Amino acid sequence: MSQLTFGFDDLEPNEPMNKQPEQPEQPAQYAESDSVLPATELKTQPLLSYLLEAKRIRLVDVKLAELLTGTETLVENNEAAHSEVFYLILLLAAAQQSQHSCLELVNINWQNPFEIKRQSLADASIAAPDVLTPFATEFGLSDAVNKLMNAECVGDDKPLLLFANKLYFARLAEYETTLASRLHHLATKELTLDEAELTSLLEVYFPSSDHTTNLSDPIKTLNWQKVACAIAATKGFSVITGGPGTGKTTTVTKLLAILQSLYASAPLTIKLVTPTGKAAARLTESILGAKQKLNMIPDNIAPLIPDSAQTIHRLLGVIPHTNKFRHNKRNPLHLDVLIIDEASMVDLSLMAKLIEALPSHARLILLGDKDQLASVDTGSILSDLCQGLELGKMPDYSSERAAQLNRVCFNNQSEIPAASSHFVLNDCIAFLQQSYRFDGSSGIGQLAQAVNTNNSGLLGYVEQTINQGGFKDLKLNYSVISKPIEQFVQQAALQYHDYLQLIQQGASVASVHKAFAHYQLLAAVREGDYGVNSLNQRIEKALAQQGLISPYQRHYVGMPIMISQNDYQLKLFNGDIGILMHDEQGQLKAMFVDEQENIRAFSPARLPAHDKVYAMTIHKSQGSEFAYTAMILPPIKQANQGINRQLVYTGITRAKTTFELVADKNVLLMAMNKSVTRASGLYDRLKHEAS
Ligand SMILES: Nc1ncnc2c1ncn2[C@@H]1O[C@H](COP(=O)(O)OP(=O)(O)OP(=O)(O)O)[C@@H](O)[C@H]1O
């Protein structure tokens, strides 16, 4: 069962909010279920004061909740004046701070709704709360729903909204509603299509004779790429999801060739977008590579497949100093097909704005890995849409859909059985299950699968194979954590010699960037010995000792930086990587290479907020890949907060040819066992639309 948490499990962008406690003095009134607390020794304070002092809630949210419930009282002294709705709003605000779209009332523990952990009270530097819950003993879900339904601030055209036992701030509910209704419309609209022509084109791009289903694993090895093309060619909305190297880019390149052939009389305008510039550069490279490899694409069709991708922000046209875009409902985009890669990184608000800007005739195709970390901002759209998909399990297609897919892909043979239930969204989803980059001989693929499926048996097999000299692409370093970390830092610093030497030799900006991107050290946390900040300092020091850099100014030659704040004026975005080098005039500049391989130089003083990036957080690495990826996880004490399956899986799947894990094995096992989900009503809303 996955966990839903508030504030504790997402280290980024919210660092953990609970502080470490101190010596308590007076007893606290705890619920029966929490009587194991060292109550006799605790010094207490009112719950609300505690929540504020422990930074579990923000004063601004208290003020908002007071405003919405009409209780303008003194926070510290008059807690009794606050209603249940007031506390539900605080819980909603805390949920939103942790990027949940809503507050799921069914998941609230009414005895301890703020999930105050005993451990955080035991050695508290702040007085413990006198109670763990503001709700009466009998209070539960139906009481909460009743109270909310009768509250002035809840309802249509009100600041808060209740939908399917979920409480929303109206703006997020609106984004979800927009998204659900537009997706439903796209998923159900009639397309004019020559099915016989589609069948023959599918056979050209995926000849039946080229593919054999492996009978020991028939579901996983079915020709899912062919099915994905059939799905996306026959629906206005589709999702193609799959792990690393399962052929998402290859499939979409073939799909675009098929679509352009089907509509050859009036070629389609196709746009490829990604959430970050880095991902756009990567997609551009992959599409070009796929086009070159796929020699079955006719000469007249190849030029109709776009060669490059751009960011969503660039496509929509940012209006400086606002959160609005040039393209919107009133000024739609000029395109027929929109493909969004790395869709797991797109947050709810951006996706809603993007889908609103689509012209009514357009098709939308989402690509991505549903198991990766969700977006930095609110929402988890891809994993919401892909609910229920499991590796090795047949997805649920309706009987009409299964029949159609068997007809166009498998010469009417019953390769795909119909599911007993019917839901229009399921008919739009394709799940690529077989990795072509990481076959059975690749340790990276096996480790990624072991983590993603929480399979400790498979992990054991991976370890055993490494011990026997196999899986050369994988290094599992369980012991380094108990040794001085300095040894690992020295090894990591060695990996940065190449690009620094290239700078010293006066090599081109592009080749320096390429050499830098070969290796990347990822860390799960920011603070502590195993955090990004400390690792950056240590590596910098090691490189300085080796005479490769002179880090005695804020900015220096060879310093790699990552932008941490969007600057729409300069067109520098969160996640963009620059390297400081001298330009032709001998001026120190931060050099960036954009997705079209253009070089852009900025003087350091003009740069928006940025960080050193010898090491980066796993969150920031999403959408990028590196030939050699090393990932370091903190020791168990620090790892309790924020390390989970999605985080570790995302880190592993950044590696292309070599992956090195530096971690306590117990931390790895703990992460595998801990899957996190975000509260959202998107799936329910789509079901509601379909009913
Ligand atoms: N059906 C196939 N048969 C053989 N090789 C394939 C097939 N499909 C894809 N490949 C190869 O597998 C590799 C990965 O494919 P591709 O880049 O399309 O996957 P992806 O899912 O987009 O990867 P990423 O993890 O980078 O998102 C490429 O080298 C590609 O040529």
From TrEMBL:
Keywords, ordered alphabetically: ATP-binding, DNA damage, DNA repair, DNA-binding, Exonuclease, Helicase, Hydrolase, Isomerase, Nuclease, Nucleotide-binding
Q: Which Gene3D superfamilies match?
A: P-loop containing nucleotide triphosphate hydrolases (3.40.50.300), RecBCD complex, subunit RecD, N-terminal domain (1.10.10.1020)
Ranges where the record places region Disordered = 1-34
- Which positions bind ATP? 242-249
Question: In what residue span(s) does the AAA+ ATPase domain sit?
Answer: 234-389
Quote the EC number: 5.6.2.3
The answer to whether the entry has keyword DNA damage is yes
> What broad class of enzyme is this?
isomerase
Gene Ontology terms for molecular function: exodeoxyribonuclease V activity
Q: Which Pfam families match?
A: AAA_19, RecD_N, UvrD_C_2
Its recorded reaction(s) are: ATP + H2O = ADP + phosphate + H(+)
- Please name the InterPro entries in this protein's record: AAA+_ATPase, Coronavir_polyprotein_1ab, P-loop_NTPase, RecD, RecD_N, RecD_N_sf, UvrD-like_helicase_C
For whether the record's keyword set contains Signal, the answer is no
Skewed-composition ranges (Low complexity): 20-32
Tell me the NCBIfam families matching this sequence.
Answer: recD
Q: Other notes on this protein?
A: In the RecBCD complex, RecB has a slow 3'-5' helicase, an exonuclease activity and loads RecA onto ssDNA, RecD has a fast 5'-3' helicase activity, while RecC stimulates the ATPase and processivity of the RecB helicase and contributes to recognition of the Chi site.
Its assembly, as annotated, is: Heterotrimer of RecB, RecC and RecD. All subunits contribute to DNA-binding.
Q: Which family does it belong to?
A: Belongs to the RecD family.
Please give the function described in this protein's UniProt entry.
Answer: A helicase/nuclease that prepares dsDNA breaks (DSB) for recombinational DNA repair. Binds to DSBs and unwinds DNA via a highly rapid and processive ATP-dependent bidirectional helicase activity. Unwinds dsDNA until it encounters a Chi (crossover hotspot instigator) sequence from the 3' direction. Cuts ssDNA a few nucleotides 3' to the Chi site. The properties and activities of the enzyme are changed at Chi. The Chi-altered holoenzyme produces a long 3'-ssDNA overhang and facilitates RecA-binding to the ssDNA for homologous DNA recombination and repair.
The protein depicted here goes by the name RecBCD enzyme subunit RecD
